[in-house]
Amino acid sequence: MKIGILQCNTSRAPFAKKFGQYPEMVKHLLQKINPTLTFETFQAEQHQLPAHIHACDAYLITGSKHSVNDHWPWIAELEDFILKLHQAHIKLIGICFGHQLIAKTLGGKVSKSPQGWGIGMSTNRVLQHKLWMNPSCDHFNLLISHQDQVVELPQGTEILASNEFCPFYMLQIGNNLTIQGHPEFTKDYAKALIESRKDLLDKSCYEKGLQSLALNKDEMLIAQWIIHFLNDNSD
């Protein structure tokens, strides 16, 4: 299977040197589950998208420092591509920004959370157990870093996982699987992000975010679910 990674963010040099760019993080995670996967990266942020929707077997939209409500031309171009994939029933994964943009494109609404930043480790309750969500569990932990979140759902959306801070945390919208959290992040990268934003965060949020990193994270579980979803033909 060939996965097209639609890159929506370029990490700053100090972060990129130590942790790599988002596509490298995604590849590293998913190839732990399936080493035969191949990838092609498209710089969506630089107006680079596949010439044809069938250039890859499936696609993944990364996180971004941008908001899906920003009026950048590249975001509008990516929305058009999302619609084409959706109409053609081609599997698409959305992470953080990608999660929000898919939901917005298909008729949902995204806005800044009145609770402020979501940082550190999130603990999420599974609301639906799909066949591809194997191994099954009732809760999972995943790293987060976001201000915006989905607040209204597109028609036909299934809520798969939720938490008090972000009720629409993990969604299935037809052939789209979207996740607010970052399975590709390491704890070291999440810690570096939190520390780089110390001046932007209130003291309580900053301290709680760092303390939450002591929790176990379930990125390998989510990676398995992503692979199973991409291979699933039951929906």
Question: What are the SSEs and their pairings?
Answer:
Layout: E1 2-6, H1 13-19, H2 22-33, E2 38-42, E3 58-61, H3 73-87, E4 92-95, H4 97-105, E5 109-112, E6 118-126, E7 139-146, E8 148-152, E9 158-162, E10 170-173, E11 176-179, H5 187-196, H6 203-212, H7 219-231
Parallel strand pairs: 1-2, 1-3, 3-4, 4-11
Antiparallel strand pairs: 5-8, 6-7, 6-9, 9-10, 10-11
Helix pairs in contact: 2-7
CATH superfamily: Class I glutamine amidotransferase (GATase) domain
Q: What is the strand content?
A: 15-25%
The strand count comes to 11
* Largest sheet, spatial ordering of strands: 2-1-3-4-11-10-9-6-7
Main beta sheet? 9 strands, mixed
The CATH architecture name reads 3-Layer(aba) Sandwich
Helix content: 25-40%
How many domains, in number, for the residues? Answer: 1
Radius of gyration: 16 Å
Number of DSSP helical runs: 7
Q: What is the CATH topology assignment? A: Rossmann fold
Class derived from helix and strand content? alpha/beta
Task: Jot down its keywords.
235 residues; alpha/beta; Rossmann fold; 9-stranded mixed beta sheet
